[in-house]
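call fold(seq) -> tokens
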Amino acid sequence: MSFSIDEVNFLVYRYLQESGFHHSAYTFGIESHISQSNINGALVPPAALLNILQKGLQYTEAEISLGEDGTEIRLTESLSLIDAVTPDIVAARQNAHNAQKQSTKEPGSGSEQNGVDGTTCSAASTTAGEAATPSAPENMELDQSIEIPASKATVLRGHESEVFICAWNPSTDLLASGSGDSTARIWDMSDNPTTTPNQLVLRHCIQKGGAEVPSNKDVTSLDWNCDGRLLATGSYDGYARIWTTDGTLASTLGQHKGPIFALKWNKRGNYILSAGVDKTTIIWDAASGQCTQQFSFHSAPALDVDWQTNTSFASCSTDQCIHVCRLNVDKPIKSFQGHTNEVNAIKWDPQGQLLASCSDDMSLKIWSMKQDTYVHDLQAHSKEIYTIKWSPTGPGTQNPNMNLTLASASFDSTVRLWDVERGVCIHTLTKHTEPVYSVAFSPDGKFLASGSFDKCVHIWSTQTGSLVHSYKGTGGIFEVCWNSRGTKVGASASDGSVFVLDLRKL
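ret:
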């Protein structure tokens, strides 16, 4: 068995991604030229690096504990990873075991020692295995009426690498997905049970030597415009693109220097907003494809953006700052500081009055344009908070009689629902067993879908916090989303799969 430098680099890159170190993963991927390797990421299982390290550690333990005559001498304690790569410690252990073998006089004592240490080694192996392989999700013990069988899901295959994002068209049942295989795809999920869903492949290419070649860069952001006629995508190749529903490339937007991390249409559909590793945010004119204004107020990569109105927006960054900017204004109209680590996501409430932010500092904060400091500092999660979503409810929405709620998804494997008016957590959703990457409210606000790297999509009642439906896919879940009628949930996964749950069939 042999391995290449490319393979080692890919495993390290994947480990950084799975551990939530996305910006470190990006930097490492650029420096190690991950995109130029021929490794199919969809075939690499989660926790591959940890599994290989564990097996290597067990082999090293076995090698040390093998006597000169081929008999096994049990280790009195398991090796740590650092011990295993430290020659002095390895040599000392071998000498100690050799000395132990020579000093053993009675066969019975050796046998007894093996029995005692064997128990210890077995326990250590079990613990290591559990660390490398996620434990069985709690939903396996749920009532069968909650567990969605595989036969009830429509699995869409075609992507050749991780599928980072998916989004439903607001007008029709077209599901868009974006992947590390440098493509986006549009899946026709209209109600027609006699046919296999059609897919359009949107290949992200760049000009090289006078010809178009695949960019080999991840497609990590996409958004439909308000009427569903156009799809915008953002790629690690530094370009934003606008596509029609038949898969035609309408515009290529090139102004960012490096990967685009987030991209959003405004409600009117005349502007697109993007955020990039180049520390800038850009407002694009959707009709002409031209950069209308570029904002350079962050001192580190901009991670997320969200429109407040059709001409004003907020942006957040690894520099821990949040800026609110307006078209044709040269400086931020408001800046918020208070997070102590990078700010991963920001979202305006449906009325554009309150801005929620979440961070690697394990807190989520609520801000108002009426004051400089945060309205609420909500601290309950025990690990990084990856994303947040507001419910489509409250005053001025289609669901005015339901309280406005905020959902937060964390690497601590939980989802929390917050009453923002009171600044309290009303439900803690705890069935996931791995980091939760995505949450999405149903259009009526009555349900919340969550997706985790435990491969499960859970659907919860927002009123009671109880689990209503659960489905286990074949890869870690990066994104979940509802169609406009609230009848279908789409999800995208780390193994290259996309799947749709039709709740009417349950």
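Residues 107-132 form the longest helix (26 residues).
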